[in-house]
Write a structure and sequence with these properties.
The chain contains 28 helices and 19 strands. It is α+β, with helices and mostly antiparallel strands. It is an enzyme of class 3 (hydrolase).
Length: about 675
Amino acid sequence: MVDSLYYLPNDIGVSALDCGKAFRLLSPQEKKYAHYLSRAAWYGGLAVLLQTSPESADIFVMLQRIFRKQTPSTLAQVATAAGLSSEEYQDKLEALVKASQAFEEQPAEMEALWNSCSCLLYSLEDKQKQLGLGDKGITTYFSGNCCLEDAELAQKFLDSKLFSTASDCAVDGECESCCGTFNFEGKEFTVKRGDYAPIMERVSYHLKQAYAANENQRKMLEEYCRSFTLGSVEAHKKGSSYWIKDKGPIVESYIGFIESYRDPFGSRGEFEGFVAVVNKAMSEHFAKLVSSAEVFLPELPWPREFEKDTFLKPDFTSLDVLTFAGSGIPAGINIPNYDDIRQSEGFKNVSLGNVLSVAYATKKEKLTFLEEDDKDLFVKLNGPSFEVQVGLHELLGHGSGKLFVQDDKGKFNFDQSKVMNPETSEPVSSWYRGSETWDSKFSTIASSYEECRAECVGLYLCLKKNVLSIFGHEGEDADNVVYINWLSMVRAGLLGLEFYTPESKSWRQAHMQARFVILRVLLEAGEGLVGLEEVTGQDGKPDARITMDRSKIHTVGKGAIHRFLCKLQVLKSTADVEGGRALYDFYSTVSDTGTQNFLRLRETVLLRKEARKMFVQANTKVNGDSVELVEYEGSAAGLICSFTERFQDDAEQLDADLLDMSKRDAPCW
């Protein structure tokens, strides 16, 4: 049962991400713009292989070589000829690799590839089966012998050297002032440039081909290219500023080293790039939410001084994804993640409509842990309620709250003599200084803590009837949407236990940890608001049952979230790492003591879990003066075919570059 965490079943759901209608409505120039941005995103997304584990790039290259030579259906025939059944064809990889045409044509190279990754591919040793620092897991962000204390020292060095001189790097254009060997707190640090250079070269090449529709897009692409060519964070920040100013484009995109969820230290950005087309009908709902934001923000449970001085109204659009390259596809995004830009220039929100419609489509017979009476309503309203939650989470969750800062010149962005801490009734006594950021201060808990804060904002504000009416929900329908939204959050908190590792007492997914924390808060509220009991299922195996008293959501539930959300914001605003960590770690604790035995419930969750769907994405290709959309069936074969065709232009050189970059880093592990 524990091992099931680390493999996917052969019958995992695979769905095509449909964007055909949206793409075909684009003008020829918009299609070309989307095509070249997509090419840049897909090439850049390959950096994730090198940001994950030592064997990832080798596995990718090996599979690409096999499937470029033979399609999945052809390989099935090869497998049968080699004596493998249809089930074994999907499981016994070594026999298939050695029976493939790719192996037949290049036996030495393919043997070397197999040997380099096969043991690690199947290893379930603690250090190799999950992301983590030191003995707790593997990560290619740090060398194999790096522990948390080493990571903290490295972060202090980076804060003192690189980020404090970012403006100098932008001036000299080459970032040479950041490179070299430095002594810091008795340790020697050597800083070099050029990681992922062959990939970033391809990214920049395709960005330069993209046809910009306006000056903001032109400058945005120019700065992105400079960032990926020189390794300049400052250039990416400038590109992000132009991106914010590019209001309401038909083709929306963002690209770069963005989210830090999968860095065990919570600081380094993983590459992602997306290209999507605006869904005008759904975007109208979000536009109304944006226009009402200044009415809803004062409703949040913290004092006015803890809110941004000015709410900079962002773009908020519903998009159909054409391309999303990275380690996963979210349902919504609030970017950029640069705190200084968000506070002074604003941000954008997007809801990914075609992802929502596929990922959150639920079949009644596969619903776990709910009472029968709740299942029909859940199936009906899980999608609409999540749409409301995503809107509030992204716009008024991530878009709210102020960070108290004293800059390098000693200037404060708040009146430290007057602003009171509502939790202590004393003047605010801590804040961010100089180059400190939310991520650098709160490090390992920053991502999950912020997701939890945004989720709480969604739960809190969805109780407002004028919020629900924006999304077309009135009367009994509105009440049902609130109920399913809260019930869904509680269920998600229980399901989140799949992503907790008891051996290392660590969480592997920021959003899932956040939802478990909310489950704990609502259980703690008592008064029968939430029930969670262990039962025996109809199959005689352990099961669990969640109940929620909908009559107490607006009273007991609202009060609990009000108090918790205020604490989260105050600790964040005041850079109170010690207090924030104590609070968040307490509610994140998974134990076998107390009213609920969460460790035992985790075993039940693993027993009943359903694997998340995989997405098949389309490709684009230039044909003369036009751009064509190439779509694939929603199956494992369609997924494989989409990837082999995606990189066929320079396949062999790309293989060589990926293997070379992987080999260069190998001594670190």
